[in-house]
Amino acid sequence: MRSGRVAGPGIDKRMTNENRIGIMGGTFDPLHMAHLVAAEEGRAAFGLDRVIFMPAGEPPHKADHPTSEAEHRYAMALLGTAENPYFEVSRLEIERPGPSYSVDTIRALRGAMGSEVEIYFIAGSDEILDIESWYEAESLPRLARFVAVPRPGFDLSELERLLPAQFMSSIEVLSMREINVSATEIRRRVATGKSIRYLVPGSVEAYIRKHGLYTLENGT
Fold this sequence. Notes:
By secondary structure, the protein is α/β, with parallel strands linked by helices. The chain is built from 10 helices and 6 strands, in the order E-H-E-H-E-H-H-E-H-H-E-H-H-E-H-H. It has a 6-stranded parallel sheet, sandwiched between helices. It is globular.
């Protein structure tokens, strides 16, 4: 297993024979099976040498919604990805002050890895449909390719109609079956005492129980 640690501004420079890197951004509150399946499907479909899971430090799109402490989310991402040798977890956004903007993360990776490396940013179709609202969105098509993962309730056929050509030229649609699992539903199930087995890896479920996450008493 890779160490999974990319501390502070430092970026893993092990780029020998690596030409394509995936970024799986998200809050991961908690990491669940849909995240893992999407990352693995994306890795296989686009020939990615590795996929870096990037827990957000301060998610700008969830400023009005409380999230679990970053260290909890990072720990769950580490535990949940441990069995896949192509997955690792970065602390880059957690240790960078201020809102976790994807454009800053991609630039940091691009600066460390060089222009010859292709970066594939994997995100849910709901997020990709909203890409024009991302921070410094106009810069994104020049920095990376974006992989739209099917999500229940979001029509990927709408991408071409709703997004300008400058964005569509950098977007790939991942062909896979929709997986109806969400972090919101998992938190709700924990809070109401329902099982989350098979919705998250067993190690993540154990961590949630051990630390009392998402219970009504804990509040997150």
